[in-house]
Write a structure and sequence with these properties.
It contains seven helices and nine strands. The chain is α+β, with helices and mostly antiparallel strands.
Length: 257
């Protein structure tokens, strides 16, 4: 028993030491790393005097990065958004509700555009090899994607069905009634493989959502308990979720929990 207690104490000590080391900003004034300084501004006390030095520094670094970045650099948009936040507030830290509001507004804009265009704004071409094979990184080989045909069928929505689905999603986005029986789920696929996300609720309640590689898709479902499952580039994903309000689930090469 003493050996077990000693082992537990040792593990706890190293765990706390690692956490402390991860949050050590003692040398932050020497840093020229945008993300490190950005993390400090989010974590530091509002009255920390180092803020007055580091906030202007990181803003200049972001401007310089944007100025010299390649036109196709994916980080530019993130830098622009962080810079806009820093111009209005002490850090880029935002609340969960603020994040939800940002996602909601982006989705509203997207689906309004689709209704106006009478077709999806995301172009999908089902004939490429991506829809037939996925890469199993551990085996370093291509394996047949048994879901390819099902994925293509889910994506091949006729104009009338697409319009009805889009209107339903928009209605859900605008609906702030906490007593509503349904809500929206946004799936963001950060992987290089097309996926199908399956949501299994109580009894016969089941939903399927096809999400293209490096894309996103939304669905309106009944509130309740669900098991989310998917095959992401050969890796199994499974997570139990309670859906009581709109949520976003991000899946990628490092599968989200």
């Amino acid at each position: 028993m003493k050996k077990i207690l000693l082992l537990l104490c040792t593990v706890l000590f190293f765990s706390l030491s690692a956490q402390k080391k991860g949050k050590d900003y003692s040398e932050i004034l020497k840093s020229n790393n945008i993300y490190e300084i950005n993390a400090f501004l989010r974590d530091a006390h509002p009255d920390d005097p180092r803020r007055s030095v580091l906030k202007p520094r990181v803003m200049e670094m972001m401007k310089e990065y944007i100025k010299n970045a390649h036109p196709a650099d994916q980080k530019v948009k993130d830098m622009q958004e962080m810079l806009a936040l820093l111009r209005r507030r002490p850090s880029t830290k935002i609340t969960f509700d603020e994040m939800n509001a940002i996602i909601k507004q982006k989705q509203i804009a997207k689906y309004k555009a689709e209704l106006a265009a009478k077709q999806p704004t995301t172009v999908y071409t089902p004939s490429n090899a991506q829809n037939t094979f996925v890469v199993n990184a551990s085996a370093n080989a291509a394996i047949p994607n048994a879901e390819a045909e099902e994925f293509n069928l889910l994506m091949a929505v006729n104009p009338v069905e697409h319009k009805n689905r889009t209107v339903k999603i928009l209605n859900s986005l605008f609906d702030n009634d906490p007593n509503a029986k349904e809500c929206i789920v946004l799936i963001r696929n950060q992987s290089d493989c097309n996926i199908i996300v399956r949501m299994e609720g109580v009894g016969t309640i089941k939903y399927r959502l096809a999400v293209p590689a490096q894309g996103e898709a939304s669905i309106v479902i009944e509130k309740g308990q669900y098991l989310f499952t998917s095959l992401v580039c050969g890796a199994q994903y499974a997570s139990q979720k309670t859906i009581e309000r709109p949520i976003m689930v991000a899946l990628g090469s490092a599968v989200a929990p």
